[in-house]
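Consider the following assembly input.
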Amino acid sequence: MGLFHEIVKKPWLDDGDDIDAINNPAAFFLPVSKVGLRVFLVVVSVIFTLLIIAYVDRMTFGSWRAMPEPWVLWLNSVLLIGSSLAFQWARASAKRDNLDAMRDGLHIGGVLTVGFLAGQLFVWRQLVDLGYYADANTANAFFYLLTALHGAHMLGGLVAWWRCVSSMWQGSPVSDLRLRVELCTTYWHYLLLIWLVVFGLLLIS
Amino acid sequence: MSEGLLDETQVIPPAELEEVDLYHAHSFWTKYVFSQDAKVIAIQYSGTAVAIGLVGLVLSWLMRLQLGFPDSFSFIDADTYYQHVTMHGMIMVIYLLTALFLGGFGNYLIPLMVGARDMVFPYMNMLSYWVYLIAVLILTASFFVPGGPTGAGWTLYPPQAISQGTPGIEYGIILMLVSLVLFIIGFTMGGLNYVVTVLQARTRGMTLMRMPLTVWGIFTATILALLAFPALFVAGIMMLLDRLIGTSFFMPEMIQGGELLSTSSGSPLLFQHLFWFFGHPEVYIVALPAFGVVSDIISVHARKNIFGYRMMVWAIVAIGGLSFIVWAHHMYVSGMNPYFGFFFATTTLIIAVPTALKLYNWVLTLWKGNIQMTIPMLFCIAFILTFLNGGITGLFLGNVSVDIPLSDTMFVVAHFHMVMGIAPVLVIFAAVYHWFPKMSGRMLNEGWGQFHFWITFIGTYLIYFPMHYLGFVGVPRRYFEIGETSFIPPSAATLNEFITIMVLIVGVAQIVFIINIIASIWTGKPSGDNPWNATTLEWQTATTPPGHGNFGDELPVTYRWAYAYSVPGVEDDFVPQNMAPGDVKRSDGGQ
């Protein structure tokens, strides 16, 4: 259903020329949870976009002292890319009704994500030990804020992941899990994208 | 109205849409407390919003007592005055108006008006309310902590908001920011529900352009809120970090008591941009649902289709879009490049075009209508006048050269109270008088309603019209007391006394409204299912109040738009949206 086509209609004439739209008025041919996730990801995007704009604005201030980029951040990025690939594998396996492969994909994806979060905490520890406190410079504060918010979103994703694997362990059939796996995969891909943007920003600054 | 009303859409088969997997409550707790039914959640939202709104009302009395009768009350000093101002503003804008329009009316009306059984994510909808309640409780707790609530002003501008000397610096500001962050998390849960329900869960035949304008208003306002609240969320978290762990997102280098503070080169202006990127759309988050509700109520009570439905939809969407590119008109006095000032003044004036279009269309809907002077209609007409007044003073203030001298005066207070205080509240009253019969099965008392309307309408004008004058003569806003100021005439003090007395009278008169609601639940005249002879789906439910699942065994099928009033050639002066074309009685005796 084209939105433009829809909003130029004259409902007072009620010509009933689009019976398809009338019989199925849903705006998207998608499950509601997929639409809900996409709307939520728009909200998440706004949060990170605003932070990135604020970051770029503050970079121009004379007092800005860029932070070092510990090599562990590269390793963490690899872990997150790996978890995203694992979720993609789980999603493809769910589509093929392959429970074993889906299970492996979900397990690997979850473990790599936990590894990513542990790695982020390790980086924090390392930077604090080197004296890069949040209150020492705004660049430091932005680094901790961006990574914390991204980590909080990953933790939220892990809650959804946990509910999904719990159902799987309790014997839910693949058909019941397919949608959840798809939602997790979309979410992981999106948070990977956000991380790559944030990491890129840290690198160029 | 076209004769095409009786058309080929009668081929629509019975509703077979995929139904929401309804949660069925089995105990008192899950039915009335931790309920997942949008109607119960709506009442919970509304009750909480009105309760905290009454606190905001009392705070306005305390504020006005100081302005009208300076230094007469020992329990009001400069600190408490600023705390009253701050808490009044934040409570009214966020915790009352936003919560009531979106959480209250949104939850009650969206599923019913689009023909859905419930919201699409009922569990998350329930969580939304409880997170909102926790946010309200945290905000309220700030009245009882050492130092009291924050007195930073409702805009919470740094560095003042988190600097020593500002009331509530100890705990008040922390609780305010935590409360706001929680409010936004809770709202996001609810907002996702409203948007996805409108997009995906409309019943068969309910195309977007057959939706009542109330749904369009709430839907667009929710999208605005989902895009605008993140700015407040980000600003709130950054300021919390500035206050709690000493970061300098917003805190510049400062010297206090001769000592250089540890803060360094933060940007207070960054906060202002973030705040107003949220703050201006917030005006329309409140106004757009009000626009929608007024459109529907006017049409029902004038027995006439809304004039220019398509234009009304487009105007709502256009106003929503434009509201994101006008925010810096709140910051003219903060200083900006003149070209930016020109840009924001221009966009501000442009937004008046779709807004004026709506006003014209409301008036043209009334033109030659069969106007029923019911209480909801009275409040709607009052809204049109009030919004017009507030909107026109907004055009003055949108111009940089006029805004700068008026910005810090009572003129601005009068302007924004007319346009986003009184005007939306008048719509809330109209909506309550209009939909109370559906929610309770009983009518509100007409006599008490008349009393409530006239004292509120005339009273608010007696409060805010003189306030414009005070602004013109230079009475500043935000001042605890102005004392003997040479350029302000003594009559300003007399006028302030008058305004304060009117505030107390109008405020106390609201008790009549509350008593009317409480008494009418038990003693009101039975309303029947559709006392206003309205066309929209919420009036066509099998039971009143609507039961769990909203509609009976089958979802309704929609055959036409929401404004089929006084259709030529049809016997009744309204045709419900779900009445099959074959069932419409023709005045010539045919079917």
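Chain A is about 75% helix and 0% strand. Ask yourself how this observation constrains the way the partners meet.
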